[in-house]
Each structure stands twice: as structure tokens, then as C-alpha cells.
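Researcher: Dear colleague, please comment on this protein.
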Amino acid sequence: MVAFTLNGKAHTLDVDPQMPLLWAIRDVIGLTGTKFGCGMAQCGACTVHVDGAPVRACQTEIGNIDGASITTIEGLSGKVAETVQKVWSELDVPQCGYCQSGQIMSATALLTDTPKPSNDDIDSAMSGNLCRCATYHRIRAAIHEASNRLGG
């Protein structure tokens, strides 16, 4: 049994402790905003926050998150998250959109920790998030705009 909080709601799952967190979120709990991309923690499509830090859910075993607080794109909230999501939409960041939940999760974590990120900060924080449509310039612009709106 693994007990954790997901998007503010307590969950207890009786699953194989080696099950990837991604499959627990998507297949057992039924939240599909967190995407499967590569399965090797290389693309960032599966990014969620575990106790506030961005992690790759495809390579995080459910047994390792006992007692943790997990946030997915469906539960992302607060001033930073809402600003990032609004700017993402206003600047038309997504093209196909597949990677964007992971991008938004990483961008929100970055701006929470670094309110006024440099281009190098952004490149470093977002380097593990791949975009098949190569909207990187729009992603960087959106992060800078969100920072400005947040007073960073």
C-alpha cells in the first residue's frame, strides 16, 4: 500500500511498488494530463511536482512517493501557475500541445524558485523538456513574460 496526496486529495493504492508513478496517475487514478513521451525520463512530457519539485513520473516508482504530495497539471494552482498558464495561452506557445503539460509544470517550478530567470536559467531548467514542434523560442518568451507579470 502506498499513501500520498494527489492534487490535494488523499489516495491509497494497493499496486506493485515498482509501478511508475505515471501509470498510477493515468491508469489507476484516471488523470490523463500527464503524458507518456519516451519512458526514459528524457523528454519531460510526464513532469509532475513531488513535494514541489519537478520529477519525471515515468521513472519514479510509486513505492518511492509514500507520504508525498504530488501535483499534476490538473491540480496546478496558485499565482505563479495561473500566470504561466494564462501567458502560455496568450502567446500561443503550444503547437501540437503534447509536451505542454510537462513544459508548464517545469516552467512553474522554475518561476517559483527563480522569479527573474535569465536565459541561461530558463535553458537549464527547461533542458529536460523536449518539444517535437520546436516552440522553444515561444516557451522562453512566455517564461520571461510570466516573470514580468509576477513582478520578477
About this structure: Residues 100-113 form the longest helix (14 residues). Residues 14 and 50 are 19 Å apart (CA to CA). The chain has a mean pLDDT of 96. The chain is about 40% helix and 15% strand.
